[in-house]
Amino acid sequence: MVIPELSRSISQDDLLKLLGVAREWLDTAPGRWLLDSERAVMRQEMSACFGQHLVQYGLAAELLDSERSVLRHHWQLDLLAGPLALPAEETQWPFAPHSLDAVVLHHGLDFCLSPRSLLREASQAVRAGGHLLVFGFNPWSSWGVNHFAGREWFSEAGFVSPARLTDWLELLGFAVEKRVDGCYLPPLKSQAWLHRLGRIDALGQRHQLPGGGFYFLLARRQTLGATPRRQRGMAFPALSLPPLVAGNRRAHKRNK
């Protein structure tokens, strides 16, 4: 699949195509390596979360291992309908404000029309004391080179820096409790080379060096933060999902 040339903006249709290309990439050697690394982080960090209600949104529809999760009820939201996912707009989630114990954004901010709008929507759904778990691509890494150099789908992904995201979270009433980095090698297409250079990645993981290809932020809601929208009825209303509508975002490199 070929990503269309995008000059100044990206439409909803182009975003869906971009998301499809990136999900196909997850079946390649570097894609599987990324998911394996991120699943390992999830298994370790989910123990900090508590409660019963969790929602996942983003690139991989099945990042969580439900058998290892400490939260009982899971929902998956997606821009596309699927066998396990509920279709929803990035700024119209079918949950009342402050009704969820945890929200996982798996590269959701990297594949959206407006990262700040999506983060605001996700944060509003988290109750006081609940957690927001965010995976993102690190622009200040070997993976970020592909982003700024305009290579493949990396050029149109968001690549919001962890420092900027931390600032946004603080404005929304969250405190970042932990950061984890991973994937210290470039996204090499050869499984053999990924294996040969595995010691470099292991060294970075062991010492949590800066410059990993992805980062993970665990943030806990301290206050109610931004004023929530009007209550939509019950804590978990009937999931009347709005249709996807056209939108656009500027496709500039956010961290230049």
From TrEMBL:
This is Methyltransferase domain-containing protein. SUPFAM superfamilies: S-adenosyl-L-methionine-dependent methyltransferases. It comes from Halopseudomonas litoralis. InterPro entries: Methyltransf_11 (IPR013216), SAM-dependent_MTases_sf (IPR029063). One of its GO terms (molecular function) is S-adenosylmethionine-dependent methyltransferase activity. The keyword Transferase applies. Keywords: Methyltransferase, Transferase. Residues 88-134 form the Methyltransferase type domain. GO terms for biological process: methylation.
